[in-house]
Amino acid sequence: MNGIDRTPRQPAASSRRRNAGPATALPAGVPGWLASLALLLLLLLSACASPGPPPPSPPPVLVADSTWWQVDRDIAAAARAATVPAGEHAGAAMAKWRQRVQHYCETDFIPWFTSYGTQQWLAIKVAWYRLGSEATTDPAAGRLAAYLQEQYQERVLDPVVREVDPAVVRETATRIYQRTLGAALTGIRQRHAVPADQFDRRLQRIPAISLAPPPAHDASLHQFIHADPLAALPAYGALLGRIRAAAAGSGGGADDSRLSPAARRASEQALARLTASGAASAAAAIIGGVPGAVISLGAFGVGLAAHEKQRPEIETQLRANLDAALAETWHSLIENRASSVMAAVHYLATRIDDALTPARSQPVELAPGPQEIPLPAAPGLDVENLHEDASRDEDEDEDSDEEDETEGEQ
For residues 227 and 236, what is the distance between their CA atoms, to the nearest angstrom? Predict the structure, then answer.
């Protein structure tokens, strides 16, 4: 029209989609039943692809009694063997502790005690102790012993504790025992192929600490092994309290505040020496205010010379008393199983071993005895008749024997 070519107008997109819907869903010429069959096949394939029900859980593993017997035996052996590395650590640490005690005794306490100034000061203290005392017994020996022990604590034990603390050694040894035993228990479970849950239940039935009441002062082997930190376990705190009480009762501990027998002996020897030398009387005169009792420089020189002459003997006596004091402390810290640095380890090992003692005898499973199978009787044979015939034959034998004896007598 008017010489201009016009392109035919295309239908709208929405109308095209509406018109093309049936043709797109199903090609032309495909019958309806085939479409239904294809839809059914798609549904079946999707059902097969969906996950099915979970597989049933495997049945629990049954551990034989003989296996549990071997497990208990291995646990008891591991509890005893774990004391070895803990004891090695404690022994090395306490050997250093003893060496440092001897060092401070030789470099501090002995020079201080045997000096002339200290001896004069002790004489003044003895006179002061006796001054105004109305007691029938001399109080100076006990008070002097307490003073010497206080000085021994300050000059020897306190510096050593800052280097090697026996309480820390005890806790470290117990932690080493805990780690060593825990590693051994893991190996036992793996070696015998015991499920972890059953093995843990077994450990929960084995007591490690039994100090109840209250119930919190009891702990199983499972609780002890998994306690982190170990101090958070109430039963372990109760065990440490028991050990400290045993140390206080036996005496000789590193922090013992009781009067040591060695300190008493040292004070008695010092008191006798001071009394014999007259130094105590001179000091008492000074304290009492006696006019003119002033020690001159010449008297001081004479006393110093006499003291230096006696000093080797004083050192020998003091060293013997210090050795005795060290022996008391060493016995409490090392040799006494109730108060030593290994006391907690010894208690745990003994308690676990005692709990497993009944399990050491291996159970013996006896096979059932063979059943008695009666033999079938012969046809027409009566068992009761056989017994009667046997009795009749025995009677006839006895009668014939009696007749033979009678003929022999005739």
Answer: 10
| SS3 label, residue 368 | coil
Does residue 375 lie in a domain region?
Answer: no
Q: Is the model's pLDDT at 307 over the cut of 50?
A: yes
Contact indicator for 261, 142 with CB cutoff of 8 Å: no
What is the number of other CB atoms lying within 10 angstroms of the CB of residue 92? 11
Task: Yes or no: say if 340 and 166 are a contact pair by the CB < 8 Å rule.
Answer: no
Question: Torsion over CA of 360, 361, 362 and 368, rounded to 10 degrees?
Answer: -160
- The domain in which residue 300 lies consists of 65-360
53 part of a folded domain: no
Q: What is the pTM of this model?
A: 0.67
- Do residues 181 and 325 touch, judged by C-beta distance below 8 A? no
Q: How many domains does the chain have?
A: 1
Task: For 212-231, write each residue's pLDDT tens digit.
Answer: 999 999 999 999 999 999 99
- Residue 14, domain member (yes or no): no
Cα–Cα distances (Å) from 78 to 68, 72, 325, in that order, read 15, 10, 37
Note the pLDDT tens digit of each residue in 18-76: 444 444 455 556 566 666 777 777 776 665 655 656 677 667 778 888 999 999 999 99
- Above 80 in pLDDT, residue 331? yes
> What are the DSSP calls for 181-216, one per residue?
HHHHHHHHHHHTT--HHHHHHHHHTSEEEE-PSSGG
Reduced 3-state DSSP string for 120-145: HHHHHHHHHHHCCCCCCCCCHHHHHH
Domain assignment present for residue 151? The answer is yes
Distances (CA, A) of 258 to 7, 27, 155, 276: 122, 109, 17, 29
In this predicted structure, what is the pLDDT of residue 308?
Answer: 72
- Six-digit token string for 5: 């070519």
Instruction: Write out the DSSP string of 259-325.
Output: PPHHHHHHHHHHHHHHHHHTHHHHHHHHHHT-TT----HHHHHHHHHHHHHHHHHHHHHHHHHHHHH
- pLDDT (tens digit, 9 = 90+) per residue, 110-133? 999 888 888 778 777 777 766 656
Q: What is the dihedral of CA 236, 240, 246, 251, to 10 degrees?
A: 170
